[in-house]
Write a structure and sequence with these properties.
Helix content: under 10%
Order of helices and strands: HEEEEEEEEEEEEEEEH
Distance between the termini: 48 Å
Strand order of the largest sheet: 1-5-6-7-8-11-12-15
Shape: rod-shaped
Structural class: mainly beta
CATH class: Mainly Beta
CATH architecture: Beta Barrel
Radius of gyration: 43 Å
Strand content: over 45%
CATH topology: Porin
Number of helices: 2
């Protein structure tokens, strides 16, 4: 009986001690996980100077084919009047040019260009009467022409796609056309007419595309149709002259480079894609365990 009372007392003491021990056990601190790293695009702006903002310079070369719209010359004798060349041909040639332009807006730009057309050889024939008594004859004619063409141009850029910007444009201006001496040979006898030069009206239509090489430089490839009005061709020589051409059609395949200054123009068309920088939150302090 005594042992039974002792066991019951011990059990009661142990049961009372369990809650106290449980209360003394360490409860760990609840630590929240750090926020997840989120990719947030941050655009890094490129700094540029305002000097020359919007302006550009250009250099071009071309290969062109010319065709005369007509030729005529004054004749003397009996009867006098005018005559036309039976055939004419101008050899293909090249030109080199430069210009200064300005980007008016995102899609509009304008420039002034000057192109020097190297000499194109001229070959032609004329028909008439020669000798005494008069008899039909053919004259073989040789000469050449060169020109300086200055145009004020306006363009519309049609948007940029993978670095390529198609465009259309038009220009108007003037040309200085210089004809070399004209030598016409009939029956082994050559007559030389002094060449002539004249200022003329010119206009052009063009289309092409540019390609971004850098954020400021573009390669320009295009086609230009140029129309030049008529003028004096050669001067008087015995029995004929002066001569005139009725103007010319010119088909040009052109290639060039454009370099833009400042943040307009090529900088807006050829700007690199925005750089994406990973957002890193500030490190959180480590939890302190007691």
């Amino acid at each position: 009986m005594k042992k039974l009372r002792t066991g019951a007392f011990a059990a009661a003491m142990f049961a009372g001690a369990v809650p106290a021990m449980a209360a003394d056990l360490y409860q760990p601190e609840v630590v929240q996980a750090p926020p997840a790293i989120v990719e947030q695009p941050t655009v890094i702006a490129e700094t540029s100077s305002d000097w020359g903002d919007g302006w550009y310079i250009r250099g071009d070369i071309d290969y062109h084919r010319m065709a005369l719209r007509g030729t005529n010359y004054i004749t003397y004798g009996t009867p006098g009047g005018t005559n036309q060349f039976a055939s004419t041909n101008l050899k293909d040639s090249f030109s080199i040019g430069a210009g200064l332009g300005y980007n008016i807006g995102k899609y509009i730009r304008a420039d002034i260009t000057a192109d020097y057309w190297f000499k194109s050889d001229f070959r032609g024939t004329t028909r008439g009467t020669c000798g005494s008594p008069p008899a039909p004859c053919v004259s073989n004619d040789k000469g050449g022409l060169s020109a300086l063409v200055v145009l004020a141009n306006a363009y519309v850029d049609l948007g940029t796609y993978h670095g390529i910007t198609p465009y259309v444009g038009a220009g108007i201006g003037a040309a200085r056309v210089k004809w070399d001496k004209l030598r016409n040979t009939v029956g082994g006898v050559t007559t030389t007419h002094a060449g002539d030069s004249s200022g003329r009206m010119a206009w052009a239509l063009m289309a092409g595309a540019s390609y971004c090489l850098t954020s400021q430089a573009e390669l320009d490839l295009g086609y230009r149709y140029t129309r030049i009005s008529g003028g004096r061709m050669f001067q008087y020589a015995p029995a004929a002259g002066p001569g005139f051409d009725d103007g010319m059609h010119v088909h040009e395949v052109r290639a060039g480079l454009r370099y833009s200054f400042g943040a307009k123009g090529a900088a807006t068309r050829c700007a690199p894609a925005p750089q994406v920088v990973s957002y890193q939150p500030e490190p959180q302090p480590m939890p302190v365990y007691k």
